Amino acid sequence: MSDYQCHLNYTCLMCKFLSVQPKSNPITPEHYHDHPSGIECIQVTEHMDFLIGNAVKYLWRCGKKDAAVQDLEKAKWYIDRKIQQLKETE
What's the domain count of the chain? Predict the structure, then answer.
């Protein structure tokens, strides 16, 4: 069963039931789809503005890929840039 690739590119309910883990996927790595809700990060962020979506992405994966502080600093950078952008358009 180690060669099984989940049809959704992440662990679906059937795969969880069967205790089957998908292969590692560089397009949808685990740190973007291991949220307890079962929702993949991009399902949320694709409906957002680029800067806010990237901030959410780094908060979503906080501490799962890189160090938590590094992810938080990246999220903060995008938030600060969005704030600056909004201030310039006032």
Answer: 1
* 11 part of a folded domain: no
Q: Give a yes or no: residue 3 inside a domain.
A: no
Residue 17 forms part of a structural domain:
no
The reported pLDDT for the residue numbered 85 is: 96
The parent domain of residue 53 ranges over: 27-88
What is the tens place of the pLDDT at every residue in 31-61?
666 777 778 888 889 999 999 999 999 998 8
Say what the pTM is: 0.65
Q: What are phi and psi of 21, to 5 degrees?
A: -105, 135
Q: What is the pLDDT of residue 74?
A: 95
> What six digits make up the tokens of 54?
């990237």
d(CA 29, CA 22): 11
Smallest CA-to-CA distance from 54 within 28, 31, 76, 85 is with: 76
